[in-house]
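Quick note —
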Amino acid sequence: MKRCSVVGLIDSKDTIELSNPDSIVLSLVLPNKHENTTYGVGAFVKRAKKVINDPNIHASELLNLAALIYAADTRISRKENSQDGWTREFDIFFPVNNVQEWEPIRQNIQDILSFLTGDLWRIFLRARPEEKPLEPLQCDREEKLQINAVSLLSGGLDSFIGAIDLLESKNNTIFVGHYTADGTQNYQNLIESALKNEYPDYFKEYIKGNVSFNKRVIDDQHKSIASENSQRSRSFLFLAMGAYLASGVGNVCKLVVPENGFIALNVPLDPLRIGANSTKTVHPNFMSKINDIFKYLELGIDLRNPYRHSTKGEMMSDCLNQKLLSEHAFKTLSCASQGKMRWDNGNKAKRLGGAGGNGNCGYCFPCLIRKAAFKKSAIADDTQYVAISDFTKAEIKSGKSGKGYAESRDILSVQFAGYKLNKGLINPTIEIHKSGSLSTVEDEWGTIADMYRRGLNEVYELVKDVPIKQTL
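Predicted structure written out below.
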């Protein structure tokens, strides 16, 4: 394995002495004019000019930090450059206007990143030259927009429900999204159109960004290294983008991350889904500590997940506009890997009874939770699943000891965990701590445990009787 150094340069002529000269080096130029940054950051900042009134310097720097982190996470393969097949080591050289302002939270950010991604992070603060400080975007808006909330809108079902509830409650809302070349933007566009048509007075804008990094950021010696697709740091980038918008509206603003509490907690269902292999993108501990960072930086943000005590089915049932939800819910994306059936040539899809191609697969854990939520809410599920649409018609296989077939892995895990829960073999008050510390929300432990019990039973009811054929 090799340590990776990710260097934020002031300009193309900038140089730096690395703490580990033998490391893989990624170099990102972060110019003093924020809107001139490449990699999709500057484009996002320019789009934000339509809605923000007074860009915050700390939020601008935080967005740069998120770009450095996302570059590290996506360009460096875990398989090739980790200690154990997962854990990588990163040095981030982060240029800021005032080192003293960031130093008190440097360790906090490192700890947050380690919790989120399962990697080892070291952040080295660099003082920008006085003649080249980071300059936030200049906005000369004559009439300031009155904004109540900024909300993440990913193209997923939870964020769609969150958007409906905000707009139905007459909140002037800006939405923020991130997209890549995987087709996510198609779902985002469908949902944007539905929301705009329904709430033209309160849907103020949807600011999207495509922050990405090609091989040109890698030093010449390591151009051939493999990239990484687990993207555990993506939520840090989402929140930095959201914080950039929310901190710039000129008043204390809600930053809403709508995600059901069951998947936000993401307790490992079996011994194979432990540690960093179980995502922690909206885990209560992560959200609480990020909120502390926002407060320290005085961003004027009220970060919240209003659904942290709700299952996905409860979110659907309680949505404030059932008609709009029922008409468009099937257009959203929940799948953990929407492209998994893309190169199948129809063989696996035919055996499983799916449509094939790109989209919700119907058998990964997020898709199972999605299907269970439709069932719980009694809303017709018109989703065109590319693999398993109907469990009764699919020929679902597993290998010896449940190995060898991705289609059955998460179904078996839910059956295993649900059976143990209903037989009293596991205790929700203990299980909820297995995905990470909940010390920051100790007063919510009882409520979280009850939500976990309901959430697991919700998805267990969907799959408990699904037959799976074991092969040799």
